[in-house]
Amino acid sequence: MAKTRTQHVCNECGASSPTWVGRCPGCEAWGTLVEEIVAPTSGGSTARLGSSASPVPIGAVATDEWQALPTMIGELDRVLGGGLVPGSVTLIGGEPGVGKSTLLLQLVASYAKRSRRSLYVTAEESAPQVHQRAERLGLLHEQLFVVPETVLPHVLAHIEEVKPEVVVVDSIQTVHDPALTSAPGSVSQVRHAAHHLVGLAKRLGVAVVLVGHVTKDGSLAGPRVLEHVVDTVLDFEGDRQQGLRMLRPVKHRFGATSELGLFEMGDTGLRDVPDPSELFLADRVRDVAGSVVVPTVEGHRPVLVEIQALVSNSSLASPRRSVQGVDPGRLAMLLAVLQQRLRLFEARSDVYALAVGGARVLEPGADLGLALAVVSSLTNRALPDSLVVCGEVGLAGEVRRVAHLERRLREAARLGFTQAIVPPSDVEAPVGLKLTTVASLGEAIARTGVAASVHPI
Ligand code: TYD
Ligand code: MG
Prior knowledge:
The protein has helices at residues 74-80, 100-113, 127-136, 152-162, 187-204, 223-226, 276-280, 328-340, 367-379, 405-414, 441-448, and strands at 5-10, 16-17, 33-38, 89-94, 118-122, 144-148, 166-170, 207-213, 232-238, 244-252, 261-266, 269-272, 291-298, 301-313, 321-324, 349-355, 387-389, 392-393, 399-400, 419-422, 434-437. The chain is α/β, with parallel strands linked by helices. It folds into 3 domains: 5-38; 68-273, P-loop containing nucleotide triphosphate hydrolases (Rossmann fold); 279-448, Ribosomal Protein S5, domain 2 (2-Layer Sandwich). Helix 8 links the parallel strand 15 (321-324) and strand 16. Thymidine-5'-diphosphate is lined by residues 94, 96-102, 133, 137, 265, 267-269.
C-alpha cells in the first residue's frame, strides 16, 4: 500500500503547507493549521467524480428517504422533531459522566427492539462493560450489535459489514486514523474521522450518532470543530449530582432548535420527564420570602420554575453576586433598576439567585419574577403561594411583553395557580386564573405588597 501523504491546511483560509507552522502562510492567523490526508489525484476527467444528480423542479424532489425514524424515546423524539433521519449525522456533546453513553445505548436498543439493526461502536468502554450495562438496563436485543473499536478504517468497515440502520460511535475523540501522525483526539483526527463517517452515512443511508466530550473550559477538540460538518448538534447537560438532564438542539437541519428534552437519571438509566413543571415545583416550600414561580417557555413547551433570591448584608469589599440557572447580566441590570429607579436596593448587599431544581431560566420574561424575588427577600415578605409572575423589565423599570403569554398562563392554571402578574396584553385569562396587568416594576411591587411603599424617581 502506498504511504499516505499528508499536508497542513489552515482552518481559516484554506492555505496549505507541507509541514506544520505556527502561523498560517496565507492569512497569518496563529495556530490554525491542521493536518489532513492528501487524496491521490490522477487524471482530470469528470467521469471519476461518480454519477452526478440532475436538476429537477423543487416540487419533484423525492423526500421519502428523509423520513425520520422515531426513536420511541419521547423526549429524544421531541428534540429531534420526530426521530433520526436516515443518512444524517448527529453529534451529542456533553461533559464526561452526564449520561451520553447511557442515552445512546438506550437509543440503539430502542431501534433494535423494533427489529431495526443497530450498531454501537464503543471506543472508550470495553464490550463486556457495554454488555453489562445493557443487561442491567434490560436492553439485550438480537439486532443490537456491539464492537469495541478505535481505528477509523475498521469502524468504517464494521458499518459496511453489519449494514445497520443506526450507528453510534462513542466517542469521536477516541476514534483515530493511524495514517495521520497527530494524536487521537486532536482537531485534525476528530475532523478527519467525522468527515469519513459523514460520507459513509450519506452513501449507505445510515443514521449516525457521534458522541463528543466537552470539558467545562471547552479544551477538548470535539463538538465545536464538528458543528459545520454534521446535520444536528445536541447539547446534553445537567448536574452530575442531580438526576435532571437536559437535551438541547444547537443546530438541526431537519427541524427547530428551540425544543428542550428533559430526562431523569435513575437506577435504570434515563427516563423521560414529560411533566417538567411538576418536577421543578415538587419540593417547593410555601410562604418563604424571596421565592416566586415564573411561567417560562422552552421551545414550544411551557415550564413553571421557582426562582429564589436571597439578599444579605455583605462584609466584602466587592459584594457577592452568585447565580445558578439565572442570567447574571439580567440580575445585575435588575439590581441597578431597583437601586436607581426605586431606591429599594443597596449595592453593598450580597445577592444570591437561583432557579430551583437545576432548571435554567435565561429568558428576559423571567425579569419581573427575579426582581420581585429580590425585593421579597429584602423586605422579608413572602409573595402569595398561588401567584405566578412574568414580564421583561426595561432599564426605565417598565414592564414589557413576553412571547407565548397564553401558553404560559394555561400551564399555570393547569397546575392550580390562581393569580398572575403579567405585562399589559389583551390575552384572555384561562379559567381559574386572575390576571393583574402591570406597566412597571414599581406597580408590580405595589400590587403584591412586597414592599411597603415605593417611590419611583
Ligand atoms: P455515562 O452514560 O457513562 O456518561 P457519559 O457517557 O456521558 O460519560 O453515565 C454516567 C453516569 O450515569 C455514571 O456516573 C453513572 C450514572 N448512571 C446512573 O445513575 N444510572 C444508570 O442506570 C446508568 C447506566 C448510569
Ligand atoms: Mg461515555
